[in-house]
Amino acid sequence: MDENIFSKVDDYLIDLFSLEDGVLKKTKQSIVENGMPEISVSANQGQFLYMMAKLCNAKRILEIGTLGGYSTIFLARALGDPGKLVSIEIDPKHAKVAENNIARAGLSDKVQVLVGDALKILPTLEKDFAPVDLFFIDADKTQYVSYFDLAMKLARPGTVILADNVIRDGKVMDKNSSDESAIGARKYNEMLSKSDEVITSVVQQVGHKDYDGIAISIVK
Ligand code: SAH
Ligand code: DHB
Ligand code: MG
């Protein structure tokens, strides 16, 4: 099949449902202008995140991997009042760009970007930011299992844990792959398949981004 059709349909849907407003367009622009990687979720994927947060009536959202705040804006827009989103970002430059974009979106009062390694920051959140209603794991794929373990400490029955990029062009199937991200995602999927603590559905995704997928887990 012509893979370009997936991008064309993505455009069709983004246009039909008006999924990317000026604030989101400026956020994407800022990522390009600052030479940051163009790996934000697509607008359709962002809308999916927004739906997930709405479905679980999220009041506390925790994102791991902010980049320019593109997915952050979709998620934070789903928050009710009161509602708060904490996003963890290891790169101070990314965090600064994200904070600008979040301010432009009028979401600064609801969103806090914490700068540092999520592995170090997550254990400090137990007192002030738990239980979390929804997690979006989207930082380095090599640490996904550790992020999950730390997320579970901040979770309650019913908490939703989303993990981006768990298909990686199908490379997750390949036992002999040397792609670190694919290896990390493969380990994550395996862990989920064996876990008694969550139920999971992995959804394959196509569109502007390469063929990939998202793991949707619910804490039992
Ligand atoms: N969620 C964003 C994309 C995130 S890209 C979106 O869809 O719009 C992944 C981000 O994770 C990068 O900005 C990277 O700097 C950050 N990151 C990588 N390792 C990290 C770590 N250990 N802790 C926190 N952030 C990390
Ligand atoms: C990469 C990271 C992502 O979070 C993503 O959605 C796509 C690609 C990457 O590191 O290549
Ligand atoms: Mg991602």
What attributes characterize this protein structure?
220 residues, alpha/beta, Rossmann fold, 7-stranded mixed beta sheet, 19% strand, binds S-adenosyl-L-homocysteine, binds 3,4-dihydroxybenzoic acid, binds magnesium ion
Please tell me the total number of domains.
Answer: 1
| N-to-C span | 39 Å
Order of strands side by side in the largest beta sheet? 3-2-1-4-5-7-6
Q: Could you list the spans in which at least 5 consecutive residues all have pLDDT below 50?
A: none
CATH class: Alpha Beta
Overall shape: globular
Radius of gyration (Å):
16 Å
CATH architecture: 3-Layer(aba) Sandwich
Tell me the series of helices and strands, N- to C-terminal: HHHEHEHEHEHEHEE
**Small ligands present:** S-adenosyl-L-homocysteine, 3,4-dihydroxybenzoic acid, magnesium ion
| Range of helix content | 25-40%
The oligomerization state is: single chain
Q: State the helix count.
A: 8
The whole-number mean of residue pLDDT values reads 97
The chain-level structural class is: alpha/beta
CATH fold annotation = Rossmann fold
How many strands in all? 7
Strand content: 15-25%
CATH superfamily: Vaccinia Virus protein VP39
How does the major sheet shape up?
7 strands, mixed
Could you describe the 3D structure shown?
- By secondary structure, the chain is α/β, with parallel strands linked by helices.
- The protein has one domain (4-161): Vaccinia Virus protein VP39 (Rossmann fold, 3-Layer(aba) Sandwich).
- It contains 8 helices and 7 strands, in the order αααβαβαβαβαβαββ.
- It has a 7-stranded mixed beta sheet, sandwiched between helices.
- The radius of gyration is 16 Å and the shape is globular.
- The model has no long low-confidence stretch (mean pLDDT 97).
- 3,4-dihydroxybenzoic acid is lined by residues 39, 138, 164-165, 181.
